[in-house]
Amino acid sequence: MPHSTTVQLVLAGRKEVPLVGVKVSLFDRDRLSSDDLLGSGFTDGKGRVSFGFTARQYAAIEDVKKPSQPLRLGMPDLYVVVHGAGGETVMSTRGQAVPASLPPLIVVAVPAAQAIEHGLLRRKPRRSDRERSQSWIDDCKSRRGKPGGTIDLCVARVVLDMIAGAAQPSN
To answer: How many CB atoms lie within 10 A of CB 50?
Structure first.
Protein backbone atom coordinates (compact mmCIF):
# COMPACT_ATOMS: atom_id res chain seq x y z
CA MET A 1 0.00 0.00 0.00
CA PRO A 2 1.49 3.38 -0.97
CA HIS A 3 2.10 5.97 1.72
CA SER A 4 2.90 9.66 1.48
CA THR A 5 4.03 12.46 3.73
CA THR A 6 5.16 16.03 3.22
CA VAL A 7 8.10 17.72 4.95
CA GLN A 8 8.13 21.49 5.44
CA LEU A 9 11.27 23.40 6.44
CA VAL A 10 10.85 26.72 8.21
CA LEU A 11 13.14 29.11 10.03
CA ALA A 12 12.92 28.49 13.79
CA GLY A 13 10.94 31.19 15.56
CA ARG A 14 9.59 32.47 12.23
CA LYS A 15 7.24 29.79 10.93
CA GLU A 16 6.16 32.09 8.10
CA VAL A 17 9.70 31.99 6.61
CA PRO A 18 10.05 28.81 4.51
CA LEU A 19 13.47 27.45 3.56
CA VAL A 20 13.41 27.16 -0.23
CA GLY A 21 15.57 24.96 -2.46
CA VAL A 22 16.98 22.90 0.42
CA LYS A 23 17.77 19.20 0.03
CA VAL A 24 15.81 17.01 2.46
CA SER A 25 15.93 13.24 3.00
CA LEU A 26 13.22 11.16 4.66
CA PHE A 27 14.21 8.03 6.61
CA ASP A 28 12.62 5.21 8.57
CA ARG A 29 14.47 4.71 11.86
CA ASP A 30 15.38 1.10 12.62
CA ARG A 31 16.74 -0.31 15.86
CA LEU A 32 18.49 -3.48 14.69
CA SER A 33 19.43 -2.66 11.12
CA SER A 34 20.52 0.40 9.18
CA ASP A 35 17.88 3.08 8.66
CA ASP A 36 15.89 3.02 5.42
CA LEU A 37 16.12 5.95 3.01
CA LEU A 38 12.60 6.60 1.73
CA GLY A 39 13.50 9.47 -0.58
CA SER A 40 15.29 12.77 -1.11
CA GLY A 41 14.16 15.98 -2.72
CA PHE A 42 14.37 19.77 -2.72
CA THR A 43 11.89 22.08 -1.02
CA ASP A 44 9.60 24.24 -3.14
CA GLY A 45 8.62 27.90 -2.74
CA LYS A 46 6.65 27.07 0.40
CA GLY A 47 9.54 25.09 1.93
CA ARG A 48 7.74 21.79 1.23
CA VAL A 49 8.71 18.53 -0.42
CA SER A 50 6.45 15.47 -0.69
CA PHE A 51 7.51 11.85 -0.51
CA GLY A 52 5.72 8.73 -1.69
CA PHE A 53 6.85 5.27 -0.57
CA THR A 54 5.64 1.74 0.09
CA ALA A 55 5.85 -0.53 3.12
CA ARG A 56 8.46 -2.67 1.33
CA GLN A 57 10.86 0.29 1.36
CA TYR A 58 10.93 0.47 5.16
CA ALA A 59 10.44 -3.19 6.04
CA ALA A 60 13.47 -4.46 7.97
CA ILE A 61 14.65 -7.57 9.74
CA GLU A 62 13.32 -6.16 13.01
CA ASP A 63 9.82 -6.42 11.56
CA VAL A 64 10.11 -10.24 11.58
CA LYS A 65 9.17 -12.12 14.76
CA LYS A 66 10.94 -15.34 13.71
CA PRO A 67 13.01 -16.03 10.60
CA SER A 68 10.33 -18.41 9.29
CA GLN A 69 7.52 -15.86 9.62
CA PRO A 70 6.64 -13.34 6.91
CA LEU A 71 7.31 -9.65 7.36
CA ARG A 72 4.96 -7.83 9.70
CA LEU A 73 4.70 -4.54 7.92
CA GLY A 74 3.84 -1.95 10.53
CA MET A 75 4.15 1.80 10.32
CA PRO A 76 7.50 3.55 9.85
CA ASP A 77 9.36 5.66 12.41
CA LEU A 78 9.89 8.70 10.17
CA TYR A 79 12.61 11.27 10.58
CA VAL A 80 14.11 14.03 8.44
CA VAL A 81 17.69 14.91 7.52
CA VAL A 82 18.34 18.46 6.28
CA HIS A 83 21.33 18.89 3.97
CA GLY A 84 23.43 22.02 3.51
CA ALA A 85 24.42 23.66 0.24
CA GLY A 86 27.52 21.43 0.09
CA GLY A 87 25.58 18.22 0.79
CA GLU A 88 26.62 18.05 4.45
CA THR A 89 24.12 17.08 7.14
CA VAL A 90 22.87 20.25 8.83
CA MET A 91 20.44 18.59 11.22
CA SER A 92 18.51 15.38 11.80
CA THR A 93 15.26 14.70 13.65
CA ARG A 94 16.21 11.03 14.24
CA GLY A 95 16.03 11.47 18.02
CA GLN A 96 12.51 12.88 17.73
CA ALA A 97 11.10 10.21 15.37
CA VAL A 98 7.62 9.23 16.50
CA PRO A 99 7.33 5.43 16.58
CA ALA A 100 4.87 3.77 14.20
CA SER A 101 3.36 6.93 12.76
CA LEU A 102 2.61 8.33 9.34
CA PRO A 103 1.90 12.06 9.73
CA PRO A 104 0.68 13.87 6.61
CA LEU A 105 2.96 16.85 7.40
CA ILE A 106 6.26 16.99 9.27
CA VAL A 107 7.35 20.56 10.06
CA VAL A 108 11.05 20.99 10.81
CA ALA A 109 12.20 24.29 12.34
CA VAL A 110 15.84 24.98 11.49
CA PRO A 111 17.68 27.34 13.87
CA ALA A 112 18.66 30.61 12.19
CA ALA A 113 22.37 30.19 13.01
CA GLN A 114 22.48 26.81 11.25
CA ALA A 115 20.44 28.09 8.29
CA ILE A 116 22.85 31.00 7.78
CA GLU A 117 26.02 28.95 8.37
CA HIS A 118 25.03 26.31 5.81
CA GLY A 119 23.57 28.64 3.17
CA LEU A 120 19.94 27.56 3.55
CA LEU A 121 18.46 31.07 3.43
CA ARG A 122 17.85 32.00 -0.17
CA ARG A 123 17.30 35.56 -1.21
CA LYS A 124 14.80 36.40 -3.87
CA PRO A 125 16.73 36.87 -7.11
CA ARG A 126 17.15 40.56 -7.89
CA ARG A 127 15.93 41.75 -11.24
CA SER A 128 18.69 42.81 -13.58
CA ASP A 129 19.14 46.47 -14.54
CA ARG A 130 17.85 45.66 -17.99
CA GLU A 131 14.65 44.09 -16.59
CA ARG A 132 14.06 47.07 -14.28
CA SER A 133 14.67 49.54 -17.13
CA GLN A 134 12.30 47.67 -19.43
CA SER A 135 9.68 47.65 -16.67
CA TRP A 136 9.96 51.42 -16.30
CA ILE A 137 9.77 51.95 -20.06
CA ASP A 138 6.64 49.80 -20.27
CA ASP A 139 5.15 51.72 -17.35
CA CYS A 140 5.93 55.05 -19.06
CA LYS A 141 4.39 53.90 -22.34
CA SER A 142 1.20 52.96 -20.53
CA ARG A 143 1.02 56.48 -19.02
CA ARG A 144 1.65 58.37 -22.27
CA GLY A 145 -0.86 61.16 -22.76
CA LYS A 146 -2.20 60.88 -19.22
CA PRO A 147 -1.97 63.82 -16.80
CA GLY A 148 1.15 63.69 -14.62
CA GLY A 149 3.07 61.18 -16.72
CA THR A 150 5.32 62.22 -19.57
CA ILE A 151 7.58 60.01 -21.55
CA ASP A 152 10.53 62.40 -21.16
CA LEU A 153 10.53 62.12 -17.37
CA CYS A 154 10.42 58.33 -17.54
CA VAL A 155 13.23 58.12 -20.07
CA ALA A 156 15.34 60.40 -17.88
CA ARG A 157 14.73 58.08 -14.92
CA VAL A 158 15.81 55.03 -16.93
CA VAL A 159 18.95 56.77 -18.19
CA LEU A 160 19.91 57.94 -14.69
CA ASP A 161 19.39 54.45 -13.31
CA MET A 162 21.55 52.96 -16.05
CA ILE A 163 24.31 55.50 -15.36
CA ALA A 164 24.15 54.79 -11.64
CA GLY A 165 24.34 51.04 -12.32
CA ALA A 166 27.32 51.47 -14.63
CA ALA A 167 29.13 53.59 -12.04
CA GLN A 168 29.02 50.80 -9.45
CA PRO A 169 32.08 48.54 -9.40
CA SER A 170 31.39 44.99 -10.57
CA ASN A 171 32.79 42.04 -8.66
So the answer is: 15
